[in-house]
Amino acid sequence: MTDSPVLRLVDAAFTHPGGGGVSGLRLEIAAGEAVALIGPNGAGKSTLLKGILGLVPRTAGSIEIGGMPGDTQAHARHGIVSFLPQSADLDPDFPISLEQVVMQGRYRGLGLFRWPGRADRAAVRRALASVGLDSLGARPFGELSGGQRQRGLLARALASEPRLLLLDEPFNGLDQPNRDALVDTIRSLKRDGVAVLVSTHDLELARLVCDSVVLVNGTQVSCGPVDEVLTLGNIQECFEGVEVEIDEHTVVVPGHEGH
Amino acid sequence: MSLTDALFAAFSIPFMGRALLVMLVLAVVAGVVGVLVNLRGLEFISDGLTHAVFPGLAIGLVVGGTAGLVPGATIAALAGAVALTWLDRAGITADAAIAIVLTATFSIGVIVVSKSDDYTGALEALLFGRVLTIPPGEVVPLVVVSLIALAATAVTLKQQLFRAFDARGSRAAGNSPLTLDLVLNASIALVVVAAASTIGTLLVLALLIVPGAVARLTTRRLWWLFPIAALFAAVGSWLGLAAGFALSVGAGVDLPAGATIVGVFVVGYALVLLGSFAAGRIRAGLDTRPPSSGATRPTVVPSSGAPTRSAVGAAGEGR
Questions:
Q1: Whether B292 and A87 lie within 8 Å, measured CB to CB
Q2: Where are the transmembrane segments (chain B) (predicted)?
Q3: Which helix (H) or strand (E) element contains residue A173?
Q4: What residues of chain A, 166 to 185, have a C-beta less than 8 Å from chain B?
Q5: Looking at beta carbons, which residues of chain A come within 8 Å of B156?
Q6: Alpha carbon A241 to chain centroid, angstroms
Q7: Nearest 5°: CA angle at A179, between A177 and A183?
Q8: Which of A84, A213, B14, B276 could covalently link to B281 via disulfide, CB atoms 3.0 to 4.6 Å apart?
Q9: A103-122: per-residue pLDDT in tens?
């Protein structure tokens, strides 16, 4: 980790024009590091991710992406940052194949006047291979299973070869094989030096693949190494009064942690 | 009159040749743009644009005669495209409000036309087109308008398809929804301009919607949609003009050319629909789609989660 972090937030706040947002964000993610973003529903996890993308306005503090201040035009970020949305509401009858979906990840770099070439097709194949779907490229996207579609969209996010990958609840609704495949993908991305910020309800996942954790609940509650942040006290503070609608986990912190 | 006369020789007559040239260019463009209309579900906006164009045609006609038609319609269509893009973006879903505005523009158009000397003739030309009486001087403007629509669509085609498939994903990837919608709606508007001058404002929608629908029935391959729609529209226009010519010259039945073309389109659509039924290809509507991936499922957290802190050291390798 030689150079500056891929993402740096200093006292940043992102606020929807209509109100609601997340504030007090102090966070650094280095190349090859994965950070879990944890908090109750409505805590502003998605807002934070969209704020990094420039889709939700920043109302305080500063942001730096790839060593550049985030105030350079938002679209300058997009070559660097890729986003996997929580659930894409996609028409299964849309006539498009998996590899055509993944190719969409290359469009940004192509601009308006160029069409995909050999290098782009190679990048699509690599992205498909890295999510374990290389044999299904020609398949209509709508015929894939839900988990395969999610992995296909991840491949699209990877096809642009981002330095920072933002994943919004990527494990929701995944069965075990798809979940394992996603864990493997995140690990190999880290080996390749990609910085990953993943919002999740899955504390187990945070332990499996993440180096640090950010707890948010409207504002940043805590941030640091997994073992130090995922303590009973922190989680109770973060989830206080929320009545645990976070899937099924009753916000039980594994006992061996101490706290 | 023989078949070859109707299909080929007829078009050596200057007015038939002009009609064919304009219709072929327009058909190809309408086919390509129409695929996007279909994929985006923009039929309502397209319908709105046909109404918005009408007062422009009418005012153009009154101010500048037939030479004023294309400029008047172009201005009205682009203004309509901007207005409808804005309405859509503002989240105004009140179809009634949009319909009131659009019928208002239509009535303004009728009132303007009623002030012209040849009221019924002018109205008929605007509503039902005048593909067989396109003056030579109007061929170039109509072709240019069509080609501008084609170029605007072609340049943004990748991003338009991305947006049609996954609007949020496209936005997250840095594409401006506003720009893409303005370009697409302006392209539709320009097709409407060219089509209103040929087959008439009332029949424009057929040109924009039928070829795209035929392509969707025919293939599930994305990039085949465009050539199929364009080819269908071109062949349909050609056969429509030929059939109208054969019936009016050969059989003495005087058919309006625009309506005959649309009739051929609809017959073609019906044949393709029957064919796809026969091929058992109808998937849409049967709704055997798999459940969406968005369903939340409880995640079990084993309490023995072993912390892994491995990959930090490997981070320095870079890409």
A1: yes
A2: 20-41, 53-86, 92-113, 182-210, 222-247, 259-279
A3: none
A4: 171-174
A5: 112
A6: 26
A7: 115
A8: B276
A9: 999 998 888 889 999 999 99
In this structure, what token pair is assigned to residue A100? Answer: 């055509």
Cβ-based neighbour number of residue A239 at 10 Å = 20
Phi, psi of B267 (to 5 degrees): -60, -45
3-state helix, strand, coil in chain A (%, to 5): 40, 25, 40
Rounded to a whole number of angstroms, the distance between the first and last alpha carbons of chain A is 30
* E strand or H helix at B292: none
Residues forming a β-bridge with A222: A215
* CA atoms within 13 Å, Cβ hemisphere of A84: 29
ipTM: 0.86
Which CATH superfamily does the domain covering B3-285 fall into?
A: ABC transporter involved in vitamin B12 uptake, BtuC (1.10.3470.10)
For A110, the token pair is 């192509």
**How many other CB atoms sit within 10 Å of the CB of residue B273?**
14
CA B280-B283-B285 angle, 5° bins: 120
Question: How far apart are alpha carbons A55 and A79 in whole angstroms?
Answer: 15
What tens digit of pLDDT does each residue of A205-234 get? 888 899 999 999 888 888 888 888 877 777
Q: Which of B32, B305, B42 is nearest to B181 (CA)?
A: B42
pTM: 0.84
Which residue is closest to A30 within chain B, CA to CA? B315
